[in-house]
Amino acid sequence: MEVILYTCVNGGTHYERRHTAPARRRAGADAGGVAGCPVSASAIREALGERRPWALPTLMTVLGRLTDKGFLICQKQGRHNLYRAAVSQGDYQAAQGRSLLETLYGNSFQSLVASLVDGHAVSQEDLRELRAYLDELEEKGGL
User: Fold this and answer.
1) What is the pLDDT of residue 36?
2) What is the overall mean pLDDT for the chain?
3) What is the CATH code for 4-85?
4) How many other C-beta atoms are found inside a 10 Å radius of the C-beta of residue 88?
C-alpha cells in the first residue's frame, strides 16, 4: 500500500512515492504532500487510478472526513474545492508511530522490535542499521 504525495515543482505537480498508510488515509495524503500544494478531488482521483478506483462521491466523502479530522485543509476556489495536507508527512508518521507503539505494544519499544524479529519482518542488516543509528544518537546526546 503505497502513498503518493504531491509536491509543487515549478508550478506543476510532481509525484513521489512515500510511506504506507490505510486506504482512507492514503487518499488524504494524496491530497497534498510536504509542500502542501492544493489539488482538486479530480486530480486526486486520477492519481489514485486503478490502485483505488473510487467513484467521485466516495472520494468526496473520504476527503470530507479527512478534512473534519484535521488531516486536510479544504480551500474554496470558485465552485471547486482544493485540498492540501494539514499535517506534514514527518508529523503524521511520528503520531502514527507513537499510536502504534502505545496501542499494540504498551509503549514497549523492545516488544515492538521483538515482534518484528520473531515475525521475520526485519533482517540482520536492519538490526545493524538500527544499532548504528542508536549508537549515533547516543554519541550526540540525543538519547
Assistant:
1) 63
2) 79
3) 1.10.10.10
4) 13
- Domains of the chain, by residue range, sit at 4-85, 108-143
Report phi then psi at 86, rounded to 5. -95, -15
DSSP-assigned letters across all residues of 95-129: HHHHHHHHHHHTT-HHHHHHHHHHTT-S-HHHHHH
pLDDT in tens, 118-137: 999 999 999 999 999 999 99
Reduced to 3 states, what is the DSSP secondary structure of residue 50? helix
When pLDDT is averaged across residues 52-59 and rounded to a whole number, the result is 91
- Say whether pTM exceeds 0.70: no
DSSP-based three-state secondary structure for 28: helix
- Residues 1-25 have a mean pLDDT of 40
* CB 36 within 8 Å of CB 84: yes
The residue type at 86: A
Q: Which grid coordinates are listed for 108?
A: 514497549
Which one, of 108, 28, 23, lies nearest residue 63 by Cα? 28
Residue 121 CA to residue 115 CA, distance in Å, equals 8
Please tell me the distance from the alpha carbon of residue 100 to that of residue 130, in angstroms, as a whole number. 18
